[in-house]
Amino acid sequence: MKAAEEFGPWLARQLKNAGKTQTELAQELGKTRAAVSAWIVGRSVPRDETIREIAALLNTDLETIHTRSADAQLGLPLSWYHRPAHVDGGREYGNAAAFAFDADVSVLAREATQNSLDARLDSAEPVRVRYTLHYLSGEAVARFREAIDWEDLRPHYDALTTDGQQGKVSRTVAAGLRDMYQKNHLVLLRIDDYNATGLTGGDYEDGLFAAVVRRQLDSQKRDLGAGGSYGLGKATLWATSQLGLVLINSTLSKPHEGRTERRLIGRLDLPWREVDGKEFAGPAWFGRPDPTSPSGEVVRSWWADEETVEKLYLTRESAAPGTSFLIVGAHDVASLVSTGDSEEEADDDQKGEEVVRRMHRRLVDALGRNFWAAMTGGGDHKPHLEASVRTYSNGKLLIDEEPVDPAAAQPSRTRALRAFLEGTTVDRLTGRGQVARATVRLNVPLHGGEVRGGVPHEAVVLVTDAEDADDDHNRVVSMRGNRMTVRDSSVPNVPIGTPFQAILLAGRAAGPDALGAEAAEEFLRASEPPEHNKWGQTEELRLSYSPSAYRRINTLTTEVNNAVRDLVAVPKAKRRNDGEAKIARRLKVGGATKRPRPKAASALPELDNVDALIDETGAWSVTVDLRVPSGVDTDLPVTPVAKFDVRSGPRPAAPWKDLVAVSGCEVVDGALRLSPGSRKAVFRGVTDVSRHPVRAQLTGLVVELRSGKGEQA
């Protein structure tokens, strides 16, 4: 078997773990210190008979010392280290960072996957993220508790549930303990990523390991394109655990202590507590005692063997760098809601399996909703991310591994982004399935409070027609370099007609050659709150730029909305040249402008131009330009009325389904109110197909104007 580590570094770590010096080992072996030093630095290796003696002194076997794939066990059993209470009497009744997020697997999927994206190792290949749910019951729960030394933890949990603490964390822990003891089941949720850096660095020094395992509010993310910046996202891992417990197995991209595989550590986050007369601050760690620590009780990460990793449900599928997080006692408030009376008749295992089934579905949905763009590729551009979810029940596959398909989650937006990546966008939409592209300008402010000038950035706006599978239409989603959805907003005053979806690609997401991409990436990152779900005023934005810097984002929003409205508007020339002229010839302009008005009556606006088409639902969709002559009382409402143009008899009304003001007016209670001083107004309307007395294709349409708030039949 191939050795996992060179003999010298491995031996040096074993001596450190055992609390032995090189001199002490030399004396016990009857060798010189120089000989031991030569082994340590790799100048020589001991003879076979000496290796057998070393194995005996380290209380290990020859296989361990020859393969060096795990540490020797001498004097260092796995144990929990609980941080002592503060000497000044201070107490924390929970990790404040965890309260920034809900105990929701949708939130977890967003934050944890974002961290995996930020840790992508090879930027030419996607980072692969897999979520695995394990439902355990009966004997499987007992075996897992034994693997994590539950008997050491139990008094600390009991202290929270018996001393009268009524905090949120204590109530959550109590619920988790009831599930485990009364129902005898436990849910584990593991998150694996591959093609990621892994938790590199020492146990205590600056690095990714210490930032995740030892510290709070330390992100260690220096890349401007990173999604996270506050160091809060990792708290969702512990917030999702009813027991506040997460185990970690990391494969490192850079060796630590000469090793890369199976670096394990556990962290427990509990409130202040008192156990057997001793007070504890809150957090605890599961690992090997560190002989270099002053008390000798502090534990550090250890290099585990394959058997231990398997018992802890932390086996990784390959040696590719990355990290596995196991959330013990995972729960999701939304998945716990009962779906019907049939659950009352189910046994505990059936109920538990139904809970993990719901969690599975919600994970797939959350990954598709937040990371469809990161999972989309096109042309020479590979996706940034591949994601999947699978579910087990007591070791048996309950739901097959389900790759998250961005095209299924967001069909229209995925099509739009793919067209951008493949370079197949158009300037104007002329048919279904096309993707129109425009650029908008963001003037990125300068650092240090400068309110004038800045760095110009050209962001990209994409628009395409919406698919029926899309949850919501006529919206624009915004993102930057890591392609995680940051903002999802509606576009006001859009043309009525074919529904659409729009995308804003800003910063690095606009492409490697986009003007001012780096400056925009830094600016927009500073404008995101810890949830990374919008762009706006933040403390970091105020301090890094200026108190008014957020106004640049408001201007960008206005520019984006204008660009979207322009792209979805159908040019008049197109309306006359693609077969819709026939429809337009059957449109008549009627109303008071066609017949004399009594002199006492107030003047009405004039119907200046009407463009119309029959949309895919069979409804009339009209765009009407009004001219407002002098003398028109703009305080009086005007009601547009649509009627079918029949050959004989009264014209049946065609009630509006949608009536939208475009410019120079607003819609109030089904009537138009003209803007004071306006000389032109535009509105759009779509008739209600369900109230058509005859198919629109078989008749014409008449649009009239009435004064006041006219009622439609």
Task: Outline the structure in words.
The protein has 713 residues and is α+β, with helices and mostly antiparallel strands. Helices cover 28% and strands 26% of the residues. Strands 1, 2, 3, 4, 5, 6, 7, 8, 9, 10, 11 and 12 form a twelve-stranded mixed sheet that branches. Strand 19 and strand 20 (620-627) form a beta hairpin. The model is unreliable at 224-231, 338-342 and 572-601 (pLDDT under 50).
Q: What is the CA-based Rg, rounded?
A: 33 Å
How far apart the termini lie comes to 86 Å
Low-confidence stretches: 224-231, 338-342, 572-601
Amount of helix: 25-40%
Mean pLDDT: 83
How many DSSP-defined strands? 26
Describe the largest sheet: 12 strands, mixed
Structure class: alpha+beta
Shape: elongated
**H/I helix tally:** 20
**Percent in strands:** 25-35%
What's the short story on this structure?
This protein has 713 residues and is α+β, with helices and mostly antiparallel strands. The chain is 28% helix and 26% strand.
Task: Identify the notable features of this structure and list them briefly.
single chain, 713 residues, alpha+beta, twelve-stranded mixed beta sheet, five-stranded mixed beta sheet, 20 helices, 26 strands, 26% strand, elongated
Q: What is the topological layout?
A:
Layout: H1 7-18, H2 22-29, H3 33-41, H4 48-57, H5 62-67, E1 79-84, H6 105-118, E2 127-137, H7 139-147, H8 150-162, H9 168-181, E3 185-194, H10 208-213, H11 235-239, E4 241-251, E5 263-269, E6 273-275, E7 278-289, E8 299-300, E9 302-303, H12 306-311, E10 322-330, H13 348-371, E11 385-393, E12 396-403, H14 406-409, H15 411-422, E13 435-444, E14 455-465, E15 475-479, E16 487-490, E17 500-505, H16 517-526, H17 539-544, H18 550-568, H19 572-577, H20 581-585, E18 587-589, E19 606-614, E20 620-627, E21 638-645, E22 656-663, E23 665-668, E24 671-674, E25 680-687, E26 700-707
Parallel strand pairs: 2-11, 15-17, 18-26
Antiparallel strand pairs: 1-7, 2-3, 3-10, 4-5, 4-10, 5-7, 5-9, 6-7, 7-8, 11-12, 13-14, 14-17, 15-16, 19-20, 20-25, 21-26, 22-25, 23-24
Helix pairs in contact: 1-3, 2-3, 6-13
